[in-house]
């Protein structure tokens, strides 16, 4: 069995994506598995009650919390690319992140990082103006906030150049292209539903630093955190299977921010 080159990794999930009494996914169960939680803050989902409830559950479990801002697009769940200028991106990222920070204070916890959601993350991965807007908003709110960015992207580079703490994220349940980008949703190979295949792919990356791709050669990617989407119907089973597989190879699961 090949030796692992990476022995410690974070597991994160996108949570708090409901409204009022309605909950998408099983956030409580996910918070018993992951070590970091990206909490929706009003752009694609959530409201003050949902934020408070999710943040309270996270605090009770000692989970590191991040803000998960998105395009203001609840109808499209933040997965549509909207033609919003960079200055407006800066303002809505600040507004959403600030809202979560305020609710976190009420819940007795704190927000430690920012991870853009959905289409906003995809645009920031290739558009420097949008990436810079996100970084400006994060720096203006709190210079101690980190950014969790898709590995190998423009946002990762821009945040690093600006002196912001930046960490790289990989996806357990999303396919990659040979260029290192996520396969767009709706295309073959975009989503990985097989728990064993997802875990095996991650173990290959942990052993080699190379991520298997759809239709091409593996690509080299850095990573501090692995994401399992919380809105998938099988998210909890997926996350648990991955954690068990990693633990079976003596991988330490710990927050990327300690």
TrEMBL record:
InterPro entries xref list: Glyco_hydro/deAcase_b/a-brl, LamB/YcsF/PxpA-like
What protein does this entry describe? UPF0271 protein
- What highest taxon heads this organism's lineage? Bacteria
Which residues belong to the signal peptide in this entry? none
Which CDD domains does this UniProt record tie to the protein?
LamB_YcsF_like
Kindly list the biological process annotations in GO that this record carries: carbohydrate metabolic process
The scientific name of the source species is: Novosphingobium sediminis
Q: What is the lineage of its organism?
A: Bacteria, Pseudomonadati, Pseudomonadota, Alphaproteobacteria, Sphingomonadales
Query: Which PANTHER family is this protein grouped with?
Result: 5-OXOPROLINASE SUBUNIT A, UNCHARACTERIZED PROTEIN YBGL-RELATED
